[in-house]
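Structure ticket #2291
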Amino acid sequence: MSALLSPIKKRRKPRIGRYVRIISGVFACLVFLFPVFWMVLTSFKMPRDIFTTPPTFIFAPTLETYTSYFFHADVPRRMFNTVIVAFGAGLVSIFAGAMAGYALARIKLRGAATIGVLILLSRGVPPIALAVPMFLVARNLGLLDQHITLILAYCTFLIPYVMWLMRGFFKALPAELEEAALLDGCTRMGAFFRIIVPISMPGLISTLIFSVILAWEELLFALVLTNRNASTIPVAIAGIAGDTVNGANWGALTAVGTLTVIPVVIFALIVQKWLIQGLADGATKG
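Resolution: structure written out below.
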């Protein structure tokens, strides 16, 4: 009898483990997504509904906050600036960081490990320590409140991130690919752009996605280096948070915050195929 029950017990254990993983994953998603859900919900509330105790889920939705602050906070222009700066910084960082990662992964340089560690340590520098010198340099060059200034400032923290991610992708590729290209007459640069870049495209795209998201939400450099013409959407949120006399204007903050999140969500949905492919390649090759 026990021999007959043992296969049943063995089948039940994997099922129980699978259910536990599914329930744990759903619970983690709910925990992380609930603040976003609450932000979107609050953005449709009137002020009297926002401050009710206990909080209410049933109310008369309104778009008054969106219509009031869409132009009051200059959302269209700042959103356009954010798109330019985020994608510009992401593309420049991918171009420079990918070549740096390839050099560290393939080219035998004396002290390459030390160079890589020093570049990685630059990520540990507090951004406030760089913001003031950047402001002084940009002011002396007459480049304050310019898109290019903000793009270059974002590259200071994106390039080390891109370099280390792409270094892992390049090290996972067989070196015979470049050797065959070099034997066929390609230069090292030609082998990189003709052979390595097309093969590593999923990794490049997934890294670009993360870089754009990091640049999209950055506040400190945008707050210090811009004034009006190149200010981004996080600056608008900071301005609303600071423009309060009788407490935080949660309706405006949540409405502009929702408008900030929507483009990132749409962008992630559009490129999710390449993002998943890049993450899967990194997990299997690394």
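Closing remark: The first helix runs from residue 2 to 43.
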